[in-house]
Amino acid sequence: MTEASVKDMPETTAKERAKQEGPLFKPLYLQVRERLTGRMIEGLWPPGMLLPSEQRLAAELGVSQGTVRKALDAMAADHLLVRRQGRGTFVAEPEEGRILFQFFRLRPDDGRAPFPESTAVSLRADRADAETAALLTLESRARIWRLKRLRRLDGVPLIVEEVVLPFARFRHLDREEPLPNNLYALYAGRFGATIARAEERLKAVAAGRAEATALGCPEGAPLLRIDRIAYGLDDRPVEQRVSLCLSEQHHYANSLR
């Protein structure tokens, strides 16, 4: 539904259509959320920006202030916005701790939550194979970046990983020296690609020679393999990542609701 139709449609009409069209109908606040998220995707609302008031947005979109508030609440719940008492609502900035612990789920068995430290081992341009092209919705043999990293917790090597990115979306990535620990902050701040969600698959595998050497474990030692596809605000895949993790004294922590 276009913005013009959102603006022109009274909220009572939306409720009536919801009854008529059933579960396929998208609630009005979600339509508003999509329009506002679109402004972030287009760069009209950059990280750190103070948003217009709810009243102003409601008047602009032709909906009630309550509908705008519900849309903003949904965006805040997804960490896209930050509400600051007495100051207003801001586009969220890629703050280190929030992003790391939103997407980094490996924890020591003693319950602590230390930040991982990362070292880039190599970065090179390559061509996507069929599987990577399909996962990142790229053309066959499209140019990509391949980044290999070693990650440590408490100074101990724990993870070897390969990150694959579309070359066209991350031009001049090789000029970012050194690459930061927090890649998702780099994606958002430098390339305008905010990671909104990720899908992961977990599997037990055996360490090969390269992983054993990097992690200081015996060849054949059990590792946790995490395959991740990270998506941007536009729900397009941004990153493919494979992480191989020692889990003898660590575990993968997740909260289900």
Describe the structure.
By secondary structure, the protein is of the alpha+beta class. It has two domains: 3-91, Arc Repressor Mutant, subunit A; 96-252, Chorismate lyase-like (Chorismate lyase), CATH 3.40.1410. Helix content is 32%, strand content 31%. It has helices at residues 3-8, 11-21, 28-41, 54-61, 65-77, 96-103, 130-135, 183-191, 209-215; strands spanning 81-84, 88-91, 106-108, 117-127, 143-153, 156-166, 195-206, 222-232, 237-246, 250-252. It has a six-stranded antiparallel β-sheet with strand order 4-5-6-9-8-7. Strands 1-2 form a two-stranded antiparallel sheet. Strand 1 and strand 2 form a beta hairpin. Helix 3 (28-41) crosses helix 5 (65-77) and helix 4 (54-61) packs across helix 5 (65-77). The longest helix has 14 residues, at 28-41. It is globular, with a radius of gyration of 21 Å. The model is unreliable at 1-5 and 8-23 (pLDDT under 50).
